[in-house]
Amino acid sequence: MVQTLRALYTGASKDDYRMFRSVLAPDFHAFDGGVDYPGVAVLDYVKKNFQDKGYVFVWTVVNPTVHTVCNMAWITYTNIGSLADPAGKHVPLKWLESAVLQKEHGRWLIRFFDSALTPGSQERLRTFLMSPPLPATESAPHR
Q1: pLDDT interval class at 140 (50, 70, 90)
Q2: Mind listing the domains of the chain with CATH numbers?
Q3: What is the radius of gyration, based on Cα positions, of the chain?
Q4: What percentage of residues in the chain have a pLDDT greater than 70?
Q5: Between the N and C ends of the chain, which has fewer C-beta atoms within 10 Å?
Q6: Computed from CA positions of residues 19, 42, 33, 107, in that sequence, does the dihedral angle turn out positive or negative?
Q7: How many CB atoms lie within 10 A of CB 51?
Q8: Who's near 143: CB < 8 A, 6+ residues apart?
Q9: What is the value of pTM for the model shown?
Q10: pLDDT digits (tens, 9 = 90+) for 84-99
């Protein structure tokens, strides 16, 4: 199940909709940051508002706890990561996340995903996104 979530993050970080969709149940749904996203709309949001503008997310599943009953499972974990802007400046972030998975044809698929930034990360992200970009570095004069 942890590998299924890692595949989700790999697909999201590479804008790889095929990989992203490959681990989703047909009725996949997500709550992210208090917003309701049906299907791949959560990836559309991340791509449009961050990745298309040169921002890079890093996501890492840490301390997963998995519960399984028959072909259903739920997982809770901490997601330790960061966001880097186009200039390379980054902010460390931490999310509390959970997912509901269903085993279909021998594979675990994500049916529901919930993600919330911790309060400290919310404030760091807000400050990071509102701060002016770093000035461009001038190259040394050639002699």
Answers
A1: very low
A2: 2-130 (3.10.450.50)
A3: 17
A4: 92
A5: C
A6: negative
A7: 16
A8: none
A9: 0.84
A10: 999 999 999 999 999 9
Q: 51 with 15: CB under 8 angstroms?
A: yes
Residue length, the chain? 143
- Both tokens of residue 87? 């200039």
Q: How far apart are CA 79 and CA 94, in angstroms?
A: 6
Neighbours of 141 (CB within 10 A): 5
DSSP the chain: -HHHHHHHHHHHHTT-HHHHHHTEEEEEEEEETTEEEETTHHHHHHHHHTGGGT-EEE--EEEEEEEEETTEEEEEEEEEEEEE-TTS-EEEEEEEEEEEEEEETTEEEEEEEEEEE-HHHHHHHHHHHHSPPPPPPPPPPP-
Nearest to 77 by CA among 90, 91, 89, 59: 59
Q: Give the Cα separation of 20 and 23 in Å (integer).
A: 6
Sign of the Cα torsion 45, 47, 51, 53 reads negative
Residue with structure tokens 């790889």? Answer: 16
User: At 134, which amino acid appears?
Assistant: L
